[in-house]
Request: fold
Amino acid sequence: MEYGESPEKEYAIKETIEKIKTAFESLPEIEAKVLELRFSEKMTLQEVADELKLSSKSRARQKQELGLRRIQSGKLLSEEAYNYLVNGLGK
Reply:
């Protein structure tokens, strides 16, 4: 969240983050962890692979894409929340 945001916007962001956390809980653990590290912790795919002891950066990317597809196909997040996840979480 940026300094000086309205209370309404801050509340909306917090609500969106809670929805994202709930969506992560419905994923297999490894996919959720990859997404959390990538989008919340801002790790690179190589850093994620190293942290989770995955065989390669490609394997981390595969888990990331699978998790994102599950979220989209299961409609676990609104389009707005999904876009916030992939474009703005942690800003």
Q: What stands out?
A: The two ends are 6 Å apart (CA to CA). The chain has one domain: 7-88.
